[in-house]
Design a protein that fits this description.
about 280 residues; mainly alpha; two-stranded antiparallel sheet; 13 helices; 2 strands; about 65% helix; about 0% strand
C-alpha cells in the first residue's frame, strides 16, 4: 500500500491510468535547468533534490490542488460529517481487506514468506470472523497489517526510484512507483472480474470501490494536509520531501523484516528490529 498521507486510488480504470501517464509524458518537456558547475553548493542541492522536471511537476501540483480544493476536499468533509467514525473505519477495513490479494502477491514476489503468511491469515480471519472485513480481528489475533505494493517490490529487487514526479490525479510519485501502481492494477483480480457483457453489477462494484478508496484516503488525511498547506512555506517541496521520506522508511522496514517462517496459522510476535 502507498503511504497513508499520499495513498491515492485512481477513480479511473487501467486504460485511463495509461492515458494519464501519456499525458504526463507529453508534459515532461518542461525541465529545470541545472545550476552551473561554478556554483557547487547549488549543483549539489539540485542533485540531492532530484527533481529535474520541477516546472512541469509544479504545474501538475497546481492542477491537482485545484481539483482537490473544488472536489475531493469538500467531498471528504461531507463524508466525515455524514458518516460516523465507526462506520468509516468499517468501510476502510473492508477496502483494505479487498486489497489483500494484491498485497499477498507482492509479499511473495518480495521473497517474504512470513509476510505472505500474515496476509493470508488476515484475509481468512477478517473475511470470516471479521464480517467480510468490517472488523480487523486478525490484528487482535496476532496478524498485524503491513505495507506492500509493487513499487516496494521493485525497490527490493534493486530498481532505482528515479527522479521525483507529480502525476495528474495520482499525486507525488516517481517512475518506479508509477510503474508499480500500474502493475498493482494489473495484479488485482477485481480489475479483470466482470469485464464481460451483461455484468453491470460487477462494474458498479468496481467503480464504487474506486470512488470509496479515493474518498476514504482523502478523509483520513484531511487534518494533515490542511496543516501542511496552512503552515508550509512551499507545500509542493514539503510534499516532495515527506513522500520520499515515507517511502524510504517503508522500504527500510521491508528490507529488515526477516522474521523466521512459521506456519501461517501460528501468530509470531513482530520483530522489533523491523520497526
Amino acid at each position: 500500500m502507498r503511504p497513508v498521507l499520499f495513498h491515492c486510488r485512481s477513480l479511473f480504470g487501467p486504460a485511463s491510468f495509461l492515458a494519464l501517464l501519456i499525458v504526463a509524458g507529453i508534459g515532461l518537456a518542461g525541465c529545470a535547468t541545472p545550476p552551473p558547475a561554478s556554483d557547487p553548493d547549488a549543483l549539489a542541492d539540485y542533485r540531492q533534490t532530484d527533481d529535474p522536471l520541477e516546472p512541469t511537476n509544479r504545474v501538475f501540483y497546481a492542477i491537482n490542488n485545484g481539483l482537490d480544493t473544488v472536489i475531493l476536499r469538500p467531498a471528504a468533509l461531507a463524508y466525515r460529517y455524514v458518516v460516523p467514525g465507526t462506520v468509516r473505519n468499517g468501510i476502510h477495513n473492508v477496502l483494505a481487506n479487498i486489497g489483500l490479494p494484491v498485497q499477498f502477491v507482492n509479499d511473495a514476489l518480495e521473497g517474504k514468506p512470513r509476510r505472505a503468511g500474515d496476509t493470508t491469515m488476515r484475509f481468512l480471519i477478517n473475511t470470516t470472523a471479521g464480517g467480510l472485513g468490517i472488523f480487523d480481528v486478525a490484528t487482535q489475533w496476532g496478524y498485524p497489517d503491513h505495507d506492500a505494493d509493487f513499487g516496494m517490490t521493485m525497490a527490493l529487487w534493486g530498481v532505482p526510484e528515479g527522479p521525483f514526479l507529480f502525476l495528474p490525479v495520482l499525486g507525488p510519485s516517481d517512475p518506479r512507483d508509477a510503474a508499480g501502481f500500474g502493475a498493482d492494477i494489473a495484479i488485482d483480480p477485481f480489475t479483470w472480474v466482470g469485464t464481460g457483457p451483461n455484468l453491470a453489477g460487477w462494474s458498479a462494484f468496481k467503480y464504487s470501490r474506486q470512488a470509496l478508496n479515493a474518498l476514504d484516503a482523502r478523509e483520513r488525511v484531511l487534518d494533515s494536509l490542511d496543516e501542511i498547506k496552512k503552515t508550509a512555506l512551499d507545500p509542493y517541496a514539503t510534499f516532495r520531501s515527506l513522500y520520499r521520506q515515507h517511502r524510504h522508511a517503508q522500504i527500510e522496514v521491508l528490507r529488515n523484516d526477516n522474521r523466521a517462517t512459521v506456519p501461517v496459522w501460528f501468530p509470531q510476535p513482530a520483530d522489533t528490529s523491523a520497526k
